[in-house]
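Researcher: Here's my situation. A collaborator sent me these components and asked whether they could plausibly form a single complex. I don't have experimental data yet, so a predicted model of the whole assembly would be a useful starting point for our discussion.
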Amino acid sequence: MIDLNTKASQINSILQGYLPEETKEFGDITEAMSYSVLAGGKRLRAIMLIESFRLFNNDSDMEKMLVHPFAAAIEFIHAYSLVHDDLPSMDNDMYRRGILTTHAKYGHAMGVLTGDALLNYAFETVTATLKSLEKLRGEVVPELYARVSTAANILFTKAGYSGMIGGQVLDVYFPNDADADKSLLKLRLLKMYELKTSNLFRAALCAGAALAGASEADLKKLDSFGYNLGLAFQIDDDILDETATFEQLGKDIGSDRKNNKLTICSLLGIEAAKDLSREKLELAATTLETLPGNKEFFTDLIEYLSGRKK
Ligand code: GRG
């Protein structure tokens, strides 16, 4: 069985290495960036990015010099999305990962700026890898430039207006129209979940594989795998928001109900939501079978996700 805690600790070391050095030269911004990133978290996206690379490639130098910065960058993007999602103009949450949210600790403006800085810093981190390519092979290898630019494009597109941000737009402006047709509401919710949550899963899997030199056909399979994994993850997130405790989640529970949000749980009921999550994980498992490499990690990940408690 996978040891996600050990893997998360390895990611924390990587993140510490890539975060900017703390300085008061620009007020609290570097402290708030570290606070938001290092607060904890399962580090699933970074772990998936590295494990996806390993399905196709076992070059440990390349993993360290190219894949680790991308793993750090996806956690910077994820952290920024959480910081902004917690703002008063969005979900207005005071706790995340067991501690005060960034805006609750540093003030509203610093919450906005910290999210902005983390997104920008993700871009700085991945583009800096271009400088290390020569060191990796002793010469400029165009193929590696192509891989980095493909991976960066995947990451920032999936996180952008037609990806994760687009999903947040649907989330914030999605009408809680209880009278609308149930199957239409379900379709709209699943589209929003795909955009908001599946897209960073897809980005992790496809960017890691692109860095490894995976084929277009395998990237498509990973995209589908990440789609279903992300949907199951978000459905379970909704279920946990209803059923878990503050101690388990490290954040206020019942947040969706507090914000009068329509979720797959409020629409279908908890049992049907659990069935839907299982169905998505089964689809993910079927796609996984068609991928090359040692898939033990991802098989275990599906197992973990089918019973996750936090
Ligand atoms: C662009 C502002 C903005 C938001 C984008 C991702 C997102 C939309 C908002 C964050 C809040 C949220 C409920 C996102 C859905 C994805 C999700 C379940 C995030 C929590 O991920 P975990 O459980 O978090 O992996 P940890 O703390 O473990 O890293």
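Model: Some features of this prediction you could bring to your collaborator: The pocket of geranylgeranyl diphosphate is lined by residues 41-42, 44, 78, 81-82, 84-85, 97, 164-165, 167-168, 196-197, 234, 237 (CB under 6 Å). The first helix runs from residue 4 to 18.
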